[in-house]
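Q: what does this look like with benzoic acid bound?
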Amino acid sequence: MSLRLGDLAPNFQAETSLGPIDFYEYLGDGWGILFSHPADFTPVCTTELGKTAGLQEEFAKRHVKVLALSVDSVESHKTWINDINETQHVTVGFPIIADKDKSIANAYDMIHPNASETFTVRSLFIIGPNKKVKLFITYPASTGRNFVEVLRVIDSLQLTANYSVATPADWKEGEDVIVVPAVKTEDAIAKFPKGVKVVKPYLRYTPQPNK
Ligand code: BEZ
């Protein structure tokens, strides 16, 4: 059965471009992103891994550790990383998992046989510090992911975890956020000293608490 939101992300041991890892040990008590790509030496994947490498500081600021995965070998990953670094002007510093027996891809339902029997699709999981699945998105092989959106979701998830707020449609860093329904309006006024704007009893905005 496939993983759903709130499920425990399965732990695994893997060979990677940076040596063997235990997933949970690698994540420690921070956040994680595990994402699959169809194959090494393919154009869209090259840009995606380059973009991820370029955002390494942004992920680090948010205490997010990143891991990529495909069914190619460690040797293939290492050779391809040279191409990514050269063509995307980055230094890939995160591990790429060599999931040759597809055990991790199967545990995370990253192979969709009606798309491809052989290759992983473009799946991405955000894992919380409690190792629970917070988000998953799956793109077709021909569409590169939007990593700015991935960072935006992490910011939203971290605001919810730390401040009991949600984020409205198209929210961007610095904009007002929404008081979650579980917080009563009378409690919200004390909890959010920057102010609470009550548009409807169920629709209450407050300035982003950590700004
Ligand atoms: C790519 O990463 O460019 C790609 C991979 C598989 C199918 C189509 C594109």
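The pocket of benzoic acid is lined by residues 38-39, 42-45, 141-142 (CB under 6 Å). Residues 34 and 67 are 5 Å apart (CA to CA).
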